[in-house]
């Protein structure tokens, strides 16, 4: 199978996850789901649980919040879903690590893959400007990363209120 990068982004609760799950089901190949969220509080634990329940049981799930690149090396499935890139980047920023360095290497690895890779991320272009430096830094970094992924992606979808628009 030829490698293919499919980038899906949109606002929080826009329907990105459901869109990708349904898209991947239509591909009819083996799937590995790489989940980047860390269960840091009760709200996040509940959100993770709901996401887990929405995925087919036959899919392999890898919980990886710090090193997607290493997780990719272990995947044998033909289809990979990475959710959520924005959460992954925030994990680095909270730990005061350089997310741009990490993403440069991750995108290099993804671009050389022969697998179909879905990357889910949040759109930061339509949000309010945070009142703190960490929040503003996050928006600036995510904006740059999302633009780099769009350049690399074969297909790009934007989700809003459960409706998808194909941009590329």
Can you walk me through this structure?
This protein is α/β, with parallel strands linked by helices and 168 residues long. It has one domain (4-166): P-loop containing nucleotide triphosphate hydrolases (Rossmann fold). Helices cover 45% and strands 23% of the residues. The protein has six helices and seven strands. It has helices at residues 16-27, 42-54, 68-74, 85-94, 99-111, 133-152, and strands spanning 4-10, 31-35, 60-63, 79-83, 116-122, 155-160, 163-166. It has a seven-stranded mixed sheet with strand order 3-2-4-5-1-6-7, with helices on both faces. Helix 4 packs across helix 6 (133-152) and helix 5 (99-111) packs parallel to helix 6 (133-152). The longest helix is centred in the last third of the chain and has 20 residues, at 133-152. It is globular, with a radius of gyration of 15 Å.
Kindly list the characteristics that best describe this protein:
45% helix; Rossmann fold; 168 residues; 6 helices; seven-stranded mixed β-sheet
CATH topology: Rossmann fold
Rg computed from alpha carbons, rounded to a whole number of angstroms: 15 Å
Strand content: 15-25%
Strand order of the largest sheet: 3-2-4-5-1-6-7
Query: What sequence of helices (H) and strands (E) makes up the elements?
Result: EHEHEHEHHEHEE
Mean pLDDT across residues: 89
Helix content: 40-55%
Q: Any idea what the CATH architecture is?
A: 3-Layer(aba) Sandwich
Q: Can you count the helices?
A: 6
């Amino acid at each position: 199978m030829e490698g293919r990068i499919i980038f899906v982004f949109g606002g929080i609760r826009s329907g990105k996850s459901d869109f990708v799950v349904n898209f991947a089901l239509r591909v009819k190949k083996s799937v590995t789901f790489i989940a980047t969220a860390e269960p840091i509080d009760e709200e996040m634990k509940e959100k993770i649980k709901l996401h887990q329940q929405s995925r087919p049981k036959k899919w392999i799930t890898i919980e990886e919040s710090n090193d997607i690149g290493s997780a990719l090396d272990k995947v044998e499935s033909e289809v990979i879903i990475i959710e959520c890139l924005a959460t992954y980047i925030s994990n680095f920023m909270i730990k005061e690590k350089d997310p741009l360095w990490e993403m440069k290497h991750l995108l290099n690895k993804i671009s050389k893959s022969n697998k179909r890779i879905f990357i889910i991320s949040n759109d930061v272009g339509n949000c309010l400007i945070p009142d703190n430096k960490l929040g503003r830094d996050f928006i600036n970094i995510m904006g740059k990363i999302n633009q780099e992924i769009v350049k690399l992606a074969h297909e790009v979808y934007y989700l809003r209120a459960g409706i998808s628009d194909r941009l590329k």
